[in-house]
Amino acid sequence: MKNLIYIVVLSLFLGNCPGSTSSSNTNLLTAFVLLNQNSNTVSFSYPSESRDYYPTSEALSFSPTIGTSVSSYSVSSSLPSGMSIDSSSGIISGTPSVDTSAATYTVTATLSDGSNLTTSVNFGTQSRTAITCSYSGTTSGCTSAYPYTCSNSSSCYETNAGCLASAACEY
Q1: Which residues does residue 106 pair with via DSSP β-bridges, in sequence order?
Q2: In this structure, are strands 70-75 and 133-135 parallel, antiparallel, or unpaired?
Q3: How many CB atoms within 10 Å of residue 152?
Q4: Alpha-carbon gap, residue 130 to 16, rounded angstroms
Q5: Tens of pLDDT, residue by residue, the chain (171 residues)
Q6: Torsions phi, psi of 162, nearest 5?
Q7: E strands within the chain?
Q8: For residue 68, what is the DSSP state?
Q9: Do the beta carbons of residue 171 and residue 126 sit within 8 Å?
Q10: What kind and span of H or E run contains 65?
Q11: Residues 145, 132: contact at Cβ < 8 Å?
């Protein structure tokens, strides 16, 4: 976030003014006025995804959206094995090599003025063999019309074939 600071300096030279009690011919009155005006708020985010898990052994990439100049990016905790953050672009990418639980990763963008913005991205990784579609009926919040679920998503599907074909299940 950029702060614009305006400094207005007003100098008046008063000399032999009526009502002046000073014996000096010239008094100097200087007033400083400091105005701090916030510019538009800068947003910083990663795309929100509809699934909690991504398959291991496949390349992933998450790109940030930010509306200002950034000096560097960093992440607060270790990303899954095989993943990294590019400190210049903020892109989180790589090919995860192990299963990890879904977790929230806090990313900090250090702006060119030295201030920081933070946001988070949430994901986990899971091997394709661990991603399954199954009949769950109404036990997992699905309706009888959509009784199939995927271990990779909270969505419900009408048929097992529909579940297997969904992008969220990554089959």
Answers
A1: 120
A2: unpaired
A3: 24
A4: 91
A5: 344 444 434 344 444 445 545 444 443 333 333 333 334 478 999 887 646 667 777 788 899 999 899 999 999 989 999 999 999 999 999 998 888 888 889 999 999 999 999 999 888 887 766 667 788 877 778 888 888 887 777 788 888 788 877 776 765
A6: -65, -40
A7: 3-14, 27-38, 44-45, 53-55, 60-62, 65-66, 70-75, 83-85, 92-94, 100-111, 116-126, 133-135, 148-150, 156-157
A8: S
A9: no
A10: strand 65-66
A11: no
Cα 117 from Cα 59, distance rounded (Å): 27
Residue pair 14/89 in contact (Cβ under 8 Å)? The answer is no
Beta bridge partners of 60: 94
Nearest to 167 by CA among 55, 64, 45: 55
165 secondary structure, DSSP code: H
Token pair listed for 105: 């990763």
Of 118, 119, 78, the closest CA to residue 100 belongs to 78
Neighbours of 11 (CB within 10 A): 8
Q: What are 19's two structure tokens?
A: 């009502």
Residues 6+ apart with CB under 8 A from 139: none
Alpha-carbon gap, residue 22 to 31, rounded angstroms? 19
* Total-model pTM: 0.56
Q: How many CA atoms are closer than 13 Å to the CA of 37, on its beta-carbon side? A: 7
